[in-house]
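Why does residue order matter? Because the sequence determines the fold. Keep that principle in mind as you read this record.
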Amino acid sequence: MKSDIIIIGGGAAGLMAAYGAASQLRAMGRDESVTILEKMPRPGRKIMITGKGRCNFTNVKDWNAFSGHIRSKSNFVKPAFFNLTPEKLIEFFGSVGMDAVVERGDRAFPASYHSTDVIDALVRSCQGAGVKIETEAEVSSIELTEDGGGKPIRFELSTADQRRFSCRRLIIATGGLSYPNTGSTGDGYRFASETGHSITPLFPSLTALVPKGYKLTTEKDLHIDRATPCSEFGEMLKGIQLKNVGAQLLIEGTLADSEFGDIDFTDGGLEGPIGFQLSRKAVKALINGSRVSIVLDLKHGVPLTELTTRVKELWAQIDKDPRSRGVREKEKCRILLGKLMPWELIPAFRAAHPGIITLERRGRTDTKVWVNLVSIAKALKEWKFDIAGHVGYERAVVTAGGVSTDDVIAKTLESRKVEGLYFCGELLDVDSDTGGYNLHTAFATGLLAGQSAAKSL
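Structure:
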């Protein structure tokens, strides 16, 4: 089968690339063909699970604020961003029947909060523009047919089921390695490498960090599968969500990053918005052999001296309360902690800080229990979790690293190595924070690659 432009991959970047190419051809009064080759039974599988199925598809910050959330090569993304700003993306979806709502943090979602609406809108747009979508078409190899001058004039593609496709322009939008069950198995990195492109080191980002003792594992491997059962300590924490806490990332004991916001304890480990934000640097440091810790401040904004005074005041109130008569010190400690944190957090907090209660032996049969109020205050401000490893690509939101941006022209996303070849989306060495930034970058780079490929015909 011959097509003028072929896109490998029918995810966010691939669908938008196909729409961009086909709509650009129409605008130019051209009738060349555009085809998507998608290995899965239907396109957009990863979009389906984005934002826990709600699909935070963009963030409406302006470039100066948006670019601060791109963790690598922000200037490379700039031409694609201004070609498709968040406002333009929302307008595009609105024009095809999908309204959007903007929530806290400038995050935009489909008004229905259903990720399927995003996929349906993209597929409708592609089909309306004349794009042909071939599903269950897993590309296994790419060959370049060259003319006498050494420049490729066609790309010959073979699929796993022995079909053959050829095209004049090729866009690779296969995604990264994250969530491989959606079809992201790293094929694009192989295609890029085989066509002479450099791949910067890959590692999972926006993933769960696993504290020491959180999982029942004796393995030394940094990749701790999410399916590994939690320990007793992990079970105490699993399911707890903390809001408005501070978190510091320590690498070899030195402050490397800090965040404020919400953090979740899950079956994977430390997640949630600020857990994810810190995970990129943390995973990279772990891979490099460094010691990594996360320190939580449960009373962010309250100085230690002020908190210590408050803890002592609460203890005095509990001690004087008539209901405390005959109540053991350990139980009074639990009452105190209940005034300082969610009740469900208390067992894990006490298990992690056994020093907040000490025993003083005054004789063979006389033992005094002491509640260390200063230690409680300090633990609230500095709850340290040494990190043993991380959840891998099976549940990482995004893949860091990828096709080197040095090998790609930012203004067109065409390869500097192979004429007529384009890259877009997560495959590129560009990744961002959670909050709609990664998905918007996929849409923006996809649209620019598609339009550029069409204009070059």
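The chain has a mean pLDDT of 95.
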